[in-house]
What we know:
Blueprint: H1 11-23, H2 35-45, H3 50-63, H4 67-72, H5 75-82, H6 88-104, H7 113-116, H8 124-135, H9 144-153, H10 162-169, H11 178-191, H12 210-213, E1 231-238, E2 240-241, E3 244-249, E4 260-261, E5 263-265, E6 272-273, E7 277-280, E8 285-292, E9 301-304, H13 315-326
Parallel strand pairs: 1-8
Antiparallel strand pairs: 1-5, 2-3, 3-4, 3-9, 6-8, 7-8
Helix pairs in contact: 1-11, 2-3, 2-8, 5-6, 8-11, 9-10, 9-11
Bound molecules: iron/sulfur cluster.
Amino acid sequence: MTGCYVRCVTPFTRELLSWFSANRRTLPWREARTPYRVWVSEAMLQQTQVATVIPYFTRWLTRFPTLEALAAAPLADVLKAWEGLGYYRRARLLHEGAKRVAAQHGGVLPTRYDELVKLPGVGPYTAAAVASLSFGEPVLAVDGNVKRVAARLFCLPGEVKVRDANARLTPYLPETEAGAFNEALMELGATVCTPRSPRCEVCPVSPHCGAYRAGQVARFPEPKMRKRVPRLHRFALVCKKDGALWLRERSQSEMLGGLWGFVLSETEPVGVKLEPVRHAYTHLKITATPVVVGAPPEVGAWVKVSELDALPLSRLDYKILEQVREMAVDKLA
Ligand code: SF4
């Protein structure tokens, strides 16, 4: 694809926008659009499928309908509403960001990219998405989908960086419809130019696509060097008394900070071992062997099993809990 280096509406831009206008999916965050709804949806959609996010988004908006409501909520409630969505850091930062906006901006999100990007949890992608979708600022929002589309459109070699995609696509960004252009590119990546089976035969921009024209779609994007994911082995200390379990609220600086869970130990305690449970995060894989111990560890609190539903727990802790229940450890409930 060749570029128009003056910001103008190119045939590529026109065809992409026209396809998007006819094919955009109906999604809850596209209805009654507000900057807050865009922000929440973009935070949730990072690393997460649309279908997974939809029920979370809907429940979130019922629980925290406004930025002020989110800012005023306790962190435990915020994490509970996020429970199961993973990458809890996003929820903590969204909460921190809402508190910052409430305290320093009168509860109103800034309108400019340069201001948005200073908020906790708002990186260049989210700032560009909110600025363009909510306020029409002509900035490109580059996520994984857009990087993949750019790699194919421009036959970009190696690992595609945000700056590469930005440099190549910005000349096509229309001054007045930046939000629709960003959404259209993301939608193209999510529904047509997909990672494994791109549907070039129905692609609205195939005449402009370098990889397609060269018959090299399968070559792009070129594979990344895979990093080795560290594996941890921990012992989950299971201590029970009168239908209660000994759990600990993890500190903000730890992995899964703010969530409650079993105390994890690097050293093997004395007790009855249950079947290990495994959980994979993007940055590490963990195997936790639950061990039923006689006395509670130093830090933590008794939590009635009947009250567990009110606390935010990680997937790993739910898996341990399931294991503990399966072994009918002293009929917990
Ligand atoms: S023609 Fe194929 S590879 Fe090129 S942008 Fe469209 S779907 Fe992607």
